[in-house]
Amino acid sequence: MTLKLFNTLTREKEEFKPLEEGKVTFYSCGQTIYDDLHIGNAKAYTAWDTLTRYLRWKGYTVRHVQNITDVGHLTDDGDQGEDKVEKRAKELGLEPMELVEDQIERYFEDTKALNVKRQDIVPRATGHINEMITYIQHIINNGYAYEVDGNIYFDVEAFAEDYPYGEMAKKDIEQLKEEARSRVEPDENKKNQFDFALWLNAEGTDHAMKWHAHFTIEGEEVYSTGYPGWHLECSIMSQKYLGDEFDIHAGGKDHIFPHHPNERAQAFAATGKGQARYWIHNEFINIEGEKMSKSEGNFYTVRELLEKGFSGDAIRLYLISTHYRSETDFSLEGLEKAEKELKRVRRTVEKVGYMEEPEGKHSFGEPGEYEGLIGDFEEAMDDDLNTAKAKQVLMKAVNEANSMLEDGDQPAVDYSNALIEMFDVLGVDVRPQASDSESGMADLLMELRDEAREQEDWDTSDMIRDRLEELGFEVEDTDEGSRWLK
Ligand code: AMP
Ligand code: ZN
């Protein structure tokens, strides 16, 4: 069976054929590292992790590169405004790299909680400034950039004469000109307002992150102490680690314009090759019907959700319950539902029994026994990574196992192993957790205690409470009844 991916370049679901048989080269745009991971970011990164897991499950060797932006992303997403990292560092009284170190650690803690496997290479923009300077020189040499006061801009009009620029966003130059006319504060340095910065001169400013650069432009030497434009890093870091042409490039739908067309234009302008063949984009998460925004207060970081007691597995289950290209409407009730669903799957797996380490793909079952389940799962995933459908297939299997158990039949252990393996492809660990059986035991003890209390058997009731407390559960008696707290 062949995977199909919706390619934003063609707006069609296309059969995925890697450049080299059996190997996949994959780049996804990563986090600008000044703040904690929010649930929207998590939708993007878990989707790309699921794609990687799925490709590996299908037998491909995958190299997945996902960058970290630690310089150059400005507050207005254009070439004006402050560097996001520098701005936040200033507010906190930190060096930009102090903030970056701290945020990277938190970022990996949060993504790990969501079972996102660390990508094969996680390059940082600040580690590639030399390559960026050389790359800009290639773009200048090829006639697609110009310099004004030490700033280097990409000449979109010149580029569009030779290459398709607006292809991905379905915008032509006339339309871009029209849009640029409405820009409130035009940038006097630019030939056209839709040109974008490759390098910004920061000589004599208090910009903390700046580097010495030297360019040769029409035989003249230009020295400029500055910093790179935001789009530049991804062109370079993707091509450096994956080749000038590679297979898949991913990002959020906000990248359909301008980030990805600009990345691609730079790549063509410097190397003659336009990076990836398949460009894929995730839809956004809304919060209870509204756009996620900090100022509106409808905003959740992953850390916050974990602190509220939700498990990373449940958050991941919740995220894969909608397709990556469908808008997700996030709510805490939805997440609570996912938590219950996860418990149900784990209970089934526990009742059926499972092997601690199943030996990888299709190691379970007699041929034919679970082929229907595996086939349906693969069919759903092959259809542009339809995790929502794939999850339905697996939940149906859980229901079937439960019906068998209710009828007094014991499904084979392989049934559980198949579920564990396919949920793992979706990034959800459905193996029973010690904490689940502990809480199950606490529930049972509470039931016994309630019974004892009903019969006014205070000795037994107190004994059970003491035992629960020894095991780390605090018992609380309220008007509505008794409950335990871990
Ligand atoms: P940012 O930190 O804003 O650069 O975003 C990092 C990644 O998360 C990008 O790929 C964005 O497209 C993606 N992203 C940001 N907000 C959301 C959202 N609400 N829903 C889904 N993806 C998002
Ligand atoms: Zn990027």
Summary keywords:
486 residues, alpha/beta, Rossmann fold, Isoleucyl-tRNA Synthetase, Domain 1, five-stranded antiparallel beta sheet, four-stranded parallel beta sheet, 16 helices, 16 strands, elongated, binds adenosine monophosphate, binds zinc ion
How would you characterize this protein structure?
By secondary structure, the protein is α/β, with parallel strands linked by helices. The protein folds into three domains: 4-282, Rossmann fold, CATH 3.40.50; 287-425, Isoleucyl-tRNA Synthetase, Domain 1, CATH 1.10.730.10; 436-485, no CATH class. The protein is built from 16 helices and 16 strands. The chain has a five-stranded antiparallel β-sheet, with helices on one face. Strands 4-3-10-11 form a four-stranded parallel β-sheet, with helices on both faces. Strands 13-12-14 form a three-stranded mixed β-sheet. Strand 15 (474-478) and strand 16 form a beta hairpin. Bound molecules: adenosine monophosphate and zinc ion. Zinc ion (ZN) binds next to helix 8.
How many angstroms does the end-to-end distance come to? 47 Å
What would the CATH topology of the largest domain be?
Rossmann fold
Domain module tally? 3
CATH class of the largest domain: Alpha Beta
Biggest sheet, spatial arrangement of strands:
5-6-7-9-8
Low-confidence stretches: none
The helix fraction, in percent, is: 40-55%
